[in-house]
Amino acid sequence: MKHIRLPALAAFSLLLSACGGDTEPPQFGPAPQLPEPQRELLPTMKIAKPVEWGDRKPVAPQGYTVAAIATDLKIPRQALVLPNGDILVAEGRGGGAPKLTPKDVIAARIKAKGTTSVAGGNRLTLLRDGDGDGSYETQRVFAENLNAPYGLALIDGKLYVANQDQLVRFDYQEGQLQASGSPVTVTDLPSELNHHWTKALAASADGRFLYVGIGSNSNITERGMTAEAERAMVWQVDAQTGAHRRYATGLRNPTALAIQPGTDQLWAVVNERDEIGPNLAPDYLTSVREGGFYGWPYSYWGSNVDTRVRPGNPQKVASTIRPDYSLGSHVAALGLAFSLPAMGAQFADGVFVGEHGSWNRGVPVGYKVVFVPFRDGRPAGDPIDFVTGFQADGNTFGRPVGVTVDPRGALIVADDLSNTVWRVTPVSRPEASSSSASAVPEG
Amino acid sequence: MQTPLHPLHAVILAGTVPLFLGVLLSDIAYFQTYEVQWKNFASWLIVGGLSFGGFALLWALIGFFRGSVREARKAIHVFLLLAIFVLGFINALVHAGDAWASMPSGLVLSAIVAVLAMIVTGSGFSGTQPGAMR
């Protein structure tokens, strides 16, 4: 049935693209074709229509199975696999910047239709698969009373959690099912307004530093430049002292950070600006250069000036670093994880990217997890769909956020629409490799 | 002889002038300073102007179709209020563009609407004498 539906959907979207002019040659890779900016009197909005999964499940490539390992969560965003295989899931909803204009009031109501109605948990949930059968029979609250936790990192028995307003630390001992007490504050994080509230987190290879992704306080400076102090950048925080410095700037909304295995190179996925057309500006995956400036707000994708920003800054535009790899405009990349050989030969070298999906586009894009193949430590080739089926026939069943690679060979995907955590695993047994990924509904 | 305005109609009609004038002045301030708060003011003032202008239009339309004599003067009055409402609504959408996206078209529209509001209010009141109201 799936095999009939997919071509039909493809034909339908092709038809739509012929009418709407939304889709152009895909904008993937190091040198995307960028159209001229478009001004629309009304921004194009296509909001996801949430529908229950029912008997459906996300679809993985041949030879992989998908299972829901936790349901009824309270807005899962990012996950962390602990050394003993337990999984921590950060749950919450942040933001709540005051609505300053009639547009803020109206747009917030429309966009809310495409998200879950559940209240954010402000907690961490621990999932445990005690017998290693792939079913996480233990699901319990590890820590609560947090403030929209998002980024997670573990360094030498210390669990770091990036709340929307603070970086905090728990002591962690292997096997712990519950935090032993309240967390200690490592440092305050910029939290005025918090238009883009998520605080992404990654630990340096040596464990000395934490990198914190801090999103801008607006789409494109419509709250004024004073609101953008310490925003749209990555902080480097000393894990011991909490002291911070700006590591890289001009990153509009760095929603996920990761260190490339075997190196100390920081990578990020970044969400770019809206309302200049369906094919602008590309969201991207990039290695983050220390001290680098990546354009926001003055320009996008290198030195393409955004005329909505006044006064402009030609010097900053000239100094803008062009990102490494375009993921396509409006896909809303929110998850990033480096793969490893345990994920199977085809997906061994590269990154997984969770794409939450578009709103500012007639033909939706994203709503899936893609794999960007790497060669010699750099992205090489077009993204490959890894987990799809989040959207079909105009209905949206789930929206991927964080992706996490379990070293034992599994991809953990947080879905903040259906409040589910999915686990995608390669089927190593040869007799099972012929069965379809979604053949058996999860019980 | 022209029919004097009902007092409530007069208040609603006259209210469009300071509101749309406020839009224009706020837009001029934003244009000159890049201070985005002026644009926020303009955006809300447009909503206010459209509310008053909308009721004034409704009142004028009802008056136009209920009146026994359909004067050309009344028709122009209705048309001007309609133009204010349509242009004002487009201006609201233009102002919904983020930051400088509203410029310079927003400023031009604000100027046109402010001038139209003054004309329609001035003409609406002309011929009205104190104590001559129904």
Detailed description of the structure:
The complex is a heterodimer of chains A (443) and B (134). With 443 residues, chain A is mainly β. Chain A has a domain at 50-72 and 337-438. Helices cover 8% and strands 34% of the residues of chain A. Chain A contains three helices and 29 strands. In chain A, the strands form eight sheets. In chain A, strands 20, 21, 22, 23 and 24 form a five-stranded antiparallel β-sheet that branches. A four-stranded antiparallel β-sheet of chain A has the order 1-29-28-27, with no helix packed on it. A four-stranded antiparallel β-sheet of chain A has the order 2-3-4-5, with no helix packed on it. The longest helix of chain A is centred in the first third of the chain and has 19 residues, at 2-20. Chain A is globular and about 60 Å long. Chain A starts with a helix and ends in a 17-residue tail after the last strand. Residues 1-21 and 429-443 of chain A have low confidence and may be disordered. Chain B has 134 residues and is mainly alpha-helical. Chain B has one domain (7-125): Four Helix Bundle (Hemerythrin (Met), subunit A) (Up-down Bundle). Chain B has four helices and no strands. Chain B has helices spanning 7-33, 36-66, 72-95, 105-125. In chain B, helix 2 (36-66) packs antiparallel against helix 3 (72-95). Chain B is elongated. The chains are: A mainly beta (443), B mainly alpha (134). The A-B interface holds A 39, 41-43, 100-103, 218-224, 275, 307-311 and B 34-37, 39-40, 43-44, 46-47, 90, 92-101, 103.
